[in-house]
């Protein structure tokens, strides 16, 4: 479940969300209505002027003062939007930090602690089963409960269930892999994720419109995995490299959806902090697994 299947479930969940929300905020990912907007006045019905955000007549007098007030109001709205988005970003990455600390803490513990390592190897059925059932149940809960990803405390419960399941599965993988390889893979993942996150927030390029192309590549991986399972074909090094590159691209895509700002073709709504943190969390987990596979192959 920590592979391409979980990512596909999240893509399906995100695709079912409306592009624009109403009322209290934006719903799911939205197209920014302000893209390409030029604040010029257009006559409406012969009297008055209407613009998208502010009416700014060039003349003085009462019309000029009204225009200035509208401009100040638009600036205040923009400042409020920025403050809300910053709060959303802090919340998402705070949740993500806790998820990753729990998951990789447990992974390293199962890899480095002899007793935990032995227990996981001798009782592999339990963590393997829970590692598949819990994340799947959590993602199905998010998909089937409508606004379950936004409703407190249900959203945190589903998030915790998914994190526990993924942690158990990664702990089992770590317990059956050389400790040195696991430690190197964790360190490499931290470095790669840090650089990709920095690139996603600093680049001038907007990757938030790449969702359909990433989903198509993900489906190719899913189909190849299914066919390979039927005919006994292993993934191999090429599959692992492709997986690493794909989920690296997904990480850039998801980070830009969270941060917003100049990357505004699409964005997560501020109420979707759980879905946003799950998306990045699964990207990081998949990057780690493919890096671990590549290092294990080398050894």
From TrEMBL:
Source species of the chain: Hondaea fermentalgiana
Span of the signal peptide: none
Membrane topology, as annotated: Multi-pass membrane protein
Record's compositionally biased regions (Basic and acidic residues): 1-17
Any Gene Ontology CC annotation: membrane
Keyword Transmembrane: yes
Name the record gives this protein: Protein lifeguard 1
Entry superkingdom: Eukaryota
Family: Belongs to the BI1 family.
Listed transmembrane segments: 92-114, 126-144, 156-175, 181-201, 213-233, 239-261, 273-292
Region called Disordered, residue ranges: 1-37
Lineage: Eukaryota, Sar, Stramenopiles, Bigyra, Labyrinthulomycetes
Annotated compartments: Membrane
Keywords assigned by UniProt, alphabetized: Membrane, Transmembrane, Transmembrane helix
